[in-house]
Model the fold of this input.
Amino acid sequence: MRHFQFLRWSAYRDTPDSKKAFLHLLAEVDKWQAESGDGRTIVHCLNGGGRSGTFCACSTVLEMIRCHNLVDVFFAAKTLRNYKPNMVETMDQYHFCYDVALEYLEGLES
Done:
């Protein structure tokens, strides 16, 4: 078991203050998942929706990019919301998912 805690997400903001730092967290979690085998990952936040949903949507979008060369934030958010309605709660969080995908793609180009 390993616990990751993201400290760059103020309680007063809908989104993290750094896309780069968030991408680093996503990469660290992805790396740990690859090394740990078939283990499950549990994501949580205060209400179990907005922040957790944003993390899961971004993770899903990055996997789409790696596996299918596709960015579909709507599909990622909609799929999560089919299971839990308040995943990705705000438009800022939804836009942040696009911003993270763009930052990731720009990093691939350099």
Summary: The CA atoms of residues 9 and 99 lie 15 Å apart. The first helix runs from residue 19 to 36. The radius of gyration is 13 Å.
